[in-house]
């Protein structure tokens, strides 16, 4: 053990000396943006890569290539995708042994990948997942003479605590690890002011708050593009198919295109479109929404003047099959639910076409904000969001949306918002007007003000 520790110390000393020599050697203009996760489902890291590319930096965007990144990323001449092979099938021995083995293999794999790219001047790393990526990125930084920037989206240990419990040895080890290696970074970004304060108080890490902001393509969708999207989705998903179509017209459940003039109109008696997006993980309890929808169905049966509802829940993740099983057991007459995976270019179009967004994200740390709500607000889409501590930094109750605490409260909010739908009066319309008037900074402007000075 002593010999191993001495060897590790000598290795770090050699890397440190190499870093001092390499500081003058180059790498200027090159940045590695890394996430030990699926790049297609890491929008903030894609936005970082696009912002860097826009300023002429050569970007190595490193991560798993499970789902296709945004077309803007694929089209950029300054961004090169660097795939990391995802580990599967490590199912030998007890679970703890499997986890330790996975971390060790990932460490070697990630370090090998980081040392094969062109020398970067900065490594911009997403956390979580931080185990083992923070330590590996730091070692790679020593080798290359690169500065390490950690973008704190949340705490990895707090996510682990959802399934293991706060006092589990793995969770305590992960917390110690994040605190220790997090301090080795050169710069730190975080997603909320509450997290910035917590990083300083509990980790002694100074961070700069870079709020998630919508990209420019998150905006209200024109009616003709709405119709094209609905017709495309109707090929695969029953809720988008038309109930009835006028003679000579082309129709979806929500729109009709006149065969002669080509004009698109909203369908008469159309259902309301409610959208939620999720990674189907433990920090989002979709049974809350399903129970609220049961109450909504009951309100209609009791005579409330509410529209039929199409509820679209997008995303991929480990609990999707579980919730799909629950959905199949529901037998609604006035509500249809579908759970598609949307292409990156279709997701903003659907948000910009919807009537209401619902967010069930409950931060494991109480310190991060749901990016899906940021995107919804970019599309001027009002939101009902479940309460947690720092949510007020994003959702202003009764101004741009509503905050609820349980399924009963959500059901009452849906009833209030959709009463007499689709008249242009009431809270739903006023929330949308407030979002149109707010005109907050978009991602590019916010990034230029906050991150560019660090580089």
Short description:
The chain has 455 residues and is of the alpha/beta class.
User: What would the average pLDDT be, to the nearest integer?
Assistant: 89
List the uncertain runs.
1-7
The CATH superfamily of the largest domain is known as Glycogen Phosphorylase B
Structural class from helices and strands?
alpha/beta
As a percent range, the share of helical residues equals: 40-55%
Number of separate strands: 16
Shape field:
globular
In the residues, how many domains can be counted?
Answer: 2
What is the count of helical runs?
A: 16
Distance between the termini: 40 Å
CATH topology call of the largest domain = Rossmann fold
Name of the level-1 CATH class of the largest domain? Alpha Beta
Q: Report the portion of residues in β strands.
A: 15-25%
Report on the biggest sheet: 7 strands, parallel
Major sheet: arrangement of strands: 3-2-1-4-5-6-7
CATH architecture of the largest domain: 3-Layer(aba) Sandwich
GO molecular function: chitobiosyldiphosphodolichol beta-mannosyltransferase activity
Subcellular location: Endoplasmic reticulum membrane
Main location: endoplasmic reticulum
EC number: 2.4.1.142
């Amino acid at each position: 053990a002593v010999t191993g520790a001495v060897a590790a110390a000598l290795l770090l000393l050699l890397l440190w000396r190499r870093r001092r020599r390499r500081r003058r050697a180059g790498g200027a203009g090159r940045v590695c943006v890394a996430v030990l996760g699926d790049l297609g489902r890491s929008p903030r890291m894609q936005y970082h890569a696009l912002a860097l590319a826009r300023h002429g930096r050569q970007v190595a965007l490193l991560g798993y290539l499970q789902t296709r990144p945004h077309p803007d990323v694929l089209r950029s001449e300054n961004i090169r995708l660097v795939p990391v092979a995802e580990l599967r099938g490590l199912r030998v021995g007890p679970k703890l042994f499997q986890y330790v083995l996975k971390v060790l293999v990932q460490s070697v794999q990630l370090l090998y990948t980081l040392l094969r790219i062109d020398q970067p001047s900065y490594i911009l790393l997403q956390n979580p997942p931080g185990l083992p990526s923070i330590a590996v990125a730091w070692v790679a930084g020593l080798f290359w003479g690169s500065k390490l920037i950690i973008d704190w989206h949340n705490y990895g240990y707090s996510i682990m605590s959802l399934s293991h419990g706060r006092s589990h040895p793995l969770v305590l080890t992960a917390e110690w690890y994040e605190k220790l290696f997090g301090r080795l970074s050169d710069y730190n970004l975080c997603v909320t002011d509450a997290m910035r304060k917590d990083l300083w108080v509990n980790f002694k890490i100074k961070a700069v708050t870079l709020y998630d902001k919508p990209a420019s393509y998150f905006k209200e969708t024109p009616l003709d593009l709405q119709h094209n999207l609905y017709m495309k989705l109707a090929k695969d998903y029953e809720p988008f198919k038309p109930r009835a179509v006028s003679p000579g017209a082309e129709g979806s459940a929500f729109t009709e295109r006149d065969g002669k003039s080509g004009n698109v109109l909203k369908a008469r008696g159309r259902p309301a479109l409610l959208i939620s997006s999720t990674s189907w993980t433990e920090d989002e309890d979709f049974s809350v929404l399903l129970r609220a929808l049961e109450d909504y169905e009951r309100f209609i049966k009791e005579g409330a003047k509410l529209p039929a509802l199409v509820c679209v829940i997008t995303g991929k993740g480990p609990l999707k099959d579980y919730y799909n099983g629950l959905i199949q057991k529901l037998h609604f007459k006035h509500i249809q639910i579908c759970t598609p995976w949307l292409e990156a270019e279709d997701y903003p179009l659907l948000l910009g076409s919807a009537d209401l967004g619902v967010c069930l994200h409950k931060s494991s740390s109480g310190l991060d904000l749901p990016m899906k709500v940021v995107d919804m607000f970019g599309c001027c889409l009002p939101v009902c969001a479940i309460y947690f501590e720092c949510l007020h930094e994003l959702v202003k109750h009764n101004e741009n949306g509503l905050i609820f605490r349980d399924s009963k409260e959500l059901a009452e909010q849906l009833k209030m918002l959709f009463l007499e739908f689709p008249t242009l009066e009431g809270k739903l319309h006023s929330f949308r007007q407030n979002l149109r008037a707010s005109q907050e900074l978009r991602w590019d402007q916010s990034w230029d003000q906050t991150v560019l000075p660090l580089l």
